[in-house]
């Protein structure tokens, strides 16, 4: 049976439902669905699955709620809404600002500490979920709002979203073909005598623990240009950075590799103990601007963050 990624039911409180395709294994036909879910997700207690089924929180492909004794259906599809890891999901006390919107595009100025999409313990307190609930964005289907790129939750600045599913590929192609110009600003220790522009090329791969990135041997897959440095006094400088590639944590890793870790970085060069975020010490990294030619209108687009480091 062929499925599309489009789900038949709108999001709940701005949160898009997740789905799970069941394997086409006839040997499992008629066995308990709950047994399969426990094997598929061994870190989720059986009691949790049974409680969610009993509460009508898991649905078949026709959006009919499934009971705790529901049978496994080979090749079927389940829909469900992700639950926050903790019931007391922290509220992020900073607001996003919409810089621009039309029928296709949405440019947003993201605050520090706010994740772009649901991940880990963050489900509702994410930029995507907030945008889907904004009253001024209900003139099109808010469930179709999707990020065109991402920045770390620790980073503030400009993020682009697409408002229509059918428009998404045209904008994504701009990023794939590197026809989008992005400029970042970062605060770090001052260094004199740096020859500019400084090109940093290296290979960045997932490190250990899993949430860290690290430089490794091999062909370069990450490229950053340090375009300008402004001495601010007091041992600090403002660096203007242009990422040519878009690897996770790229700017943070490359600045740390220069011996110039970005001010207040909780991960690089050495991760700090996990704990409550210190809202008085945001990572001093800002996605200052983004520019490109709009694929639908041919207009030159330029969006700039109004935030300051």
UniProtKB/TrEMBL annotation:
Catalytic EC class? isomerase
What GO molecular function terms would the record report?
A: RNA binding; tRNA pseudouridine(32) synthase activity
Q: Per its UniProt entry, which superkingdom is the organism in? A: Bacteria
Keywords in alphabetical order: Isomerase
Q: Where is the Pseudouridine synthase RsuA/RluA-like domain?
A: 104-257
What's a Pfam family in this record? PseudoU_synth_2
EC numbers for this chain: 5.4.99.28
> InterPro entries under this entry?
PsdUridine_synth_cat_dom_sf, PsdUridine_synth_RluA-like_CS, PsdUridine_synth_RsuA/RluA, RluA_PseudoU_synthase
Asked if the keyword Metal-binding belongs to this entry, the reply reads no
For this chain's UniProt record, which GO biological process terms are given?
Answer: enzyme-directed rRNA pseudouridine synthesis
What PANTHER family is this protein classified in?
MITOCHONDRIAL RNA PSEUDOURIDINE SYNTHASE, PSEUDOURIDINE SYNTHASE RSUA_RLUA-LIKE DOMAIN-CONTAINING PROTEIN
Q: What is this protein called?
A: Ribosomal large subunit pseudouridine synthase A
Q: Which gene encodes it?
A: rluA
